[in-house]
Specification:
Layout: H1 2-13, H2 17-39, H3 42-58, H4 69-87, E1 91-93, E2 107-109, H5 125-134, H6 138-149, H7 154-161, H8 165-182, H9 184-187
Antiparallel strand pairs: 1-2
């Protein structure tokens, strides 16, 4: 898929409108999964993917042919999601000097719904898991989405996010650990 989307974007840049339709059909499902993991709402995810694809089309002339398309699209989509969360008042930036699990800044996203510990008695496991994921920092939600919902390899995730493969492994470790902490009683034998 990465080579196909890159070829399609090069055709879009050259003025091929049909290629853009193909590109939209190809990347929308993946974009929706990623956006949903970041914002937690199906409707908002749909809108953000559409907004991002509109931005892709508007910026087609600035697309560099040698650059893989999917990481470029992912950055546009991620930025749209972060902007959306900021407008909704659900993002708090943390200082670059704060203690992180790994290097770089992060955003803390405030979940709209109940906290995972308020779901202790809930019978629906998927609701508990979704609520727990919603409380994770954006970088952890994003990495879990790419690995477990999109089934991307570590190498592909590293390319998408523009980070080293070791950082992918580190973020996945910390994301899984935080998720396990939030779902502790659910994971007990």
């Amino acid at each position: 898929m990465p080579a196909l989307t890159t070829r399609l974007m090069c055709r879009v840049k050259a003025g091929d409108a049909a290629a853009f339709d193909q590109l939209v059909a190809t990347v929308t499902p993946r974009g929706h999964t990623v956006a949903h993991a970041l914002v937690g709402s199906t409707e908002d995810a749909h809108d953000l993917v559409q907004e991002s694809l509109t931005k892709v089309y508007a910026a087609r002339a600035s697309y560099r042919d040698e650059e893989p398309f999917l990481p470029w699209f992912h950055r546009i989509l991620r930025n749209a999601c972060i902007s959306f969360l900021r407008k909704k008042g659900r993002v708090k930036t943390r200082s670059l000097t704060s203690t992180n699990d790994d290097d770089g800044a992060d955003w803390e996203v405030e979940a709209d719904g109940p906290r995972p510990d308020e779901h202790v008695e809930a019978a629906d496991t998927s609701t508990r898991v979704r609520a727990a994921i919603d409380t994770l920092p954006v970088k952890h939600r994003e990495i879990l989405s790419l690995r477990h919902f999109e089934n991307l390899s570590y190498v592909d995730i590293a390319a998408h996010l523009g980070i080293p493969e070791g950082t992918v492994m580190s973020r996945l470790y910390h994301a899984r650990r935080r998720l396990a902490e939030r779902l502790g009683d659910l994971l007990e034998p």
